[in-house]
Design a protein that fits this description.
Length: 402
């Protein structure tokens, strides 16, 4: 009994075991709100927009670090300095955006050199920036897989340039939020802010960076806006003089629907249940041998956003192809053409009937050519008849002589 009581008291005195979980590194996500307060203090930002902007900055950082490492190896140097970082930013960015980012990075580096002797403060406080150089140093060191040394100025310069780039994106997104009479910046504002700026749009297109759920920029082609002159039909005799039902001009309702759908393009369009059923069927087909694989709800949402963006992109390019062909209506030929060009499967020696089974549209020029061909055939038939009549006359003359 005494031994049991001792063990009970010992277990009671022991502290409860706690599971130590590793802290997730979110890179620049916690510092985006601080940059926003410097750029636009009256605006906030949603969690989804913050996460996606953080992912976009990380992708740009990886691209810059890749160029820095390759430039260091080309120069046969064992230590990467701010010179390689400057050249890498000039390669990744372009025009005024690259020049201003480099200037902002140099200011941070110069201030860091002046206050470097002061102890008890972090590197970003010495450089007067928000983004931490410790995070940019991870990218430059390739997360420990690179053997190249890094100077103390290179991470500071990179952090200052990335902070400027983030400020430009947030400034354009805040302007879009103010125009929509909203305080918090959403993913829709980020998409419109990036696509409306030519420099940022070129950066995102070059590095293939997409924002999920951002929608599309409101745009209607000029060929759809032109109004055709309609001829008034004369009234028939005995027609009712009563009130007729109001009819819109052709294309008015379509333009109204285009504007409405473009405004709400940041929402999902496909039904969720059939889409999830289709994805589960595809996953089960590919995992027959390995066993049952479960898919989380977040994966379904991300996959649906990606698929809808791809469909919208194909339809947009197909619409441009239809406009180029002189048509307003979209046809299956345009979608086949865009898919073949994007996949690189277009064969120049392929017959037109293999591409589409649509009938050829006959124009006025084709009709004129057919008429000319018919006239030539008639002339040839007349010549043949004249030759036959001449041969018959010669035969009659020979018979008479005999």
């Amino acid at each position: 009994m005494e031994s049991v009581s001792k063990t009970q008291t010992d277990t009671a005195k022991r502290p409860p075991t706690t599971i130590v979980r590793k802290k997730k590194t979110r890179f620049f996500e916690t510092y985006i709100s601080k940059v926003l307060k410097h750029v636009s203090p009256e605006n906030g930002i949603t969690a989804n927009a913050k996460q996606q902007l953080n992912s976009a900055i990380c992708l740009v950082s990886r691209e810059v670090a890749r160029h820095v490492i390759s430039l260091t190896e080309i120069a046969k140097k064992k230590t990467m300095s701010e010179k390689e970082v400057i050249n890498a930013f000039n390669v990744v960015l372009s025009g005024d955006l690259a020049r201003e980012a480099v200037e902002h990075g140099r200011k941070a580096m110069d201030k860091f050199e002046e206050v470097n002797k002061v102890k008890g403060s972090s590197r970003q406080e010495k450089a007067g920036i928000v983004f931490p150089p410790a995070q940019t140093e991870k990218f430059l060191r390739n997360f420990g897989y690179s053997k190249v040394m890094v100077t103390s100025h290179a991470p500071v310069f990179m952090a200052g340039a990335l902070e400027y780039l983030t400020g430009v994106i947030l400034e354009s997104a805040a302007l879009s939020a103010r125009q929509s009479k909203r305080v918090r910046i959403t993913i829709r504002d980020l998409e419109i802010g990036v696509r409306s700026d030519d420099r940022l749009n070129a950066l995102f297109l070059r590095n293939k960076i997409q924002l999920l759920g951002g929608g599309v920029i409101p745009f209607i082609h000029s060929s759809l806006m032109t109004k055709k002159v309609r001829k008034k039909r004369p009234k028939k005799n005995g027609a009712d003089d009563g009130k007729k039902k109001h009819r819109f001009r052709p294309g008015t309702v379509s333009l109204r629907e285009i504007r409405r759908f473009q405004k709400t393009s940041n929402c999902l369009t496909f039904a969720k249940f059939p889409f999830e059923k289709l994805v589960r069927g595809v996953v089960s087909e590919h995992t027959k041998d390995s066993g049952i694989m479960k898919v989380s709800k977040d994966v379904f949402i991300i996959l649906q956003y990606f698929v809808e963006q791809k469909v919208v992109e194909i339809l947009k390019n197909a619409n441009f192809a239809a406009v180029h062909a002189g048509r307003v209506k979209l046809m299956p030929v345009d979608i086949d053409f865009i898919c073949a060009v994007s996949e690189g499967t277009m064969n120049p020696y392929q017959k037109s009937k293999d591409i589409s089974n649509e009938p050829d549209i006959v124009g006025d020029d084709d009709l004129e050519e057919d008429d000319d061909l018919e006239e030539d055939d008639d002339l040839e038939e007349d010549d043949d008849l004249e030759e036959e009549s001449d041969d018959e006359d010669i035969e009659d003359e020979l018979v008479n002589k005999k």
